[in-house]
Amino acid sequence: MAVPTKNIPAPDLVPVRRALLSVFDKTGLVDFAKALAASGVELVSTGGTAKTIAEAGLAVRDVSELTGFPEIMDGRVKTLHPSVHGALLGIRDDADHAKAMRDHHIEPIDLVVSNLYPFEEVRGSGAGYASIVENIDIGGPAMIRASAKNHAYVAIVTDPADYASVVNALEMNLGSLSLDFRKKLAAKAFARTATYDAAISGWFAEELQIEHPTWRAFGGRLDQVMRYGENPHQNAGFYLSGDKRPGVATAKQLQGKQLSYNNINDTDAAFELVGEFDPARSAAIAIIKHANPCGVAEGETLKAAYAKALACDPVSAFGGIVAMNRILDAEAAQEIVKTFTEVIIAPDATDEATAIVAAKKNLRLLVTGGLPDPRAAGTTVKSVAGGLLVQSRDNAVVDDLDLKVVTKRAPTPAELADLKFAFRVAKHVKSNAIVYAKNGATVGIGAGQMSRVDSSRIAARKALDAAEAAGLAEPLTKGSVVASDAFFPFADGLLSAIEAGATAVIQPGGSMRDEDVIAAADEHGIAMVFTGVRHFRH
């Protein structure tokens, strides 16, 4: 049964005569407090906030004057008092509420300025359990929610970015704030506490290793409003979760126009893929189009790796995303800008490389300061009608797997190196995925097909097209190896790969017809390795 309501209409304009300020983030606080005081607003505050205001030469009442009770327990208890919450929650046009406020000497508060202890930042800093718990704000969210609920009479400001608009609104309305303005502030306040609580509950689930908590919350802060979404008729915004994993969300954009929805999606896919390659072992380049790789390669230098990656599918690379596992240097930059590219993302870039890219004013250059750890645990979320699909990140790495040779012939050392390379790439190709590789580079990629045979054929066809473009006598799939993200349900997919010229295969295994597939491999003298791990990607 719902809580009954008295249906008292909210006033449009409410004069702001008293404000309670209690903030952790003191950005812009003094200027805002001065503007409020200049408008005749009485300032009430707590602890460090009151000290900052007083040191600026402004008159400020300590909240203990309202409550008749001092701050205690290291500041844990200061605003949790009826004199504060009655001042926030009282319905002033309700006779009973008004009488209770008079009887208990509760002075109304018209404006609350509150932001929260930095739980998200402390959690991400690697602090200990006790420090993280101590940064769970209690009084702040209580005041914010009380003020937001009673937005009919109280304005709640949770973001320093809103100080200027509040001052402007007060000037426009001669010291009052409108109901519409108070509603917008309240909506933002509830979203802020929801995001804050989502971070706390998520941390507890991780800390206690609860894989599937009964209630699951996710939150984020708006980073940018985009021109449109995946298509021009869709609107879109980009929200930051606070996760510090190196990538597009944490990157610094050095130049270029604003990233689009598709840019962000594709750049994330590109950088996650290139993170599979250890920069201490070799340079690596991934070229992505529509979240699928169209060329991936390792090399002694980024320039060499880029040339090999581009050769896999130079047509699809046009307008793509280029990701790398090392600092972008001038030689690589000179090669990359020869092809129309939307985004370059790298751990860093030299001054010379940055200058070269700057000649292409629309080309976005992002630097991340590091690479994503492919082994790190994490969570991915996908929306479906009426719900969310939540799973752990696919952090299986081929170097850690127990590879099993199932054919009569074992792969040569060179084939094994290429098999591992191909399986790393296949992990990041949409299913059904087939990846041909040779000499540390993809030479054919088939992605996102309903049939694994079709993926194999498309990859081989791509290799033929690339060979023709390069003037080669035969496609590079001749003498290559092939990776499949999931098992071959029938021998036909394998036979298609053999027909394209593959000499060794890596796949998860686990089909009812594994014996038939192994027999076909043996019949054609190719080597096959089972990983025991599937990499479906939808």
Summed up, what is this model?
It contains 18 helices and 23 strands.
Q: How many strand units?
A: 23
| Proportion in β-strands | 15-25%
Task: Tell me the strand order in the biggest sheet.
Answer: 10-15-14-13-11-12
Rounded to the nearest angstrom, the distance between the terminal CA atoms is 43 Å
Shape: elongated
Taking pLDDT < 50 over at least 5 consecutive residues as the criterion, the unreliable ranges are none
Radius of gyration: 30 Å
Largest sheet: 6 strands, mixed
Content-based structural category: alpha/beta
Enumerate how many helices there are, as a single number: 18
Architecture overview:
This protein has 538 residues and is an alpha/beta fold. The protein is built from 18 helices and 23 strands. The chain has a 6-stranded mixed β-sheet with strand order 10-15-14-13-11-12, sandwiched between helices. Strands 18-23-22-21-19-20 form a 6-stranded mixed β-sheet, with helices on both faces. Strands 4-3-2-5-6 form a 5-stranded parallel β-sheet, sandwiched between helices. A hairpin with a 4-residue loop joins β19 and β20. α12 (302-312) packs parallel to α13 (330-336). The chain is elongated. The two termini are 43 Å apart.
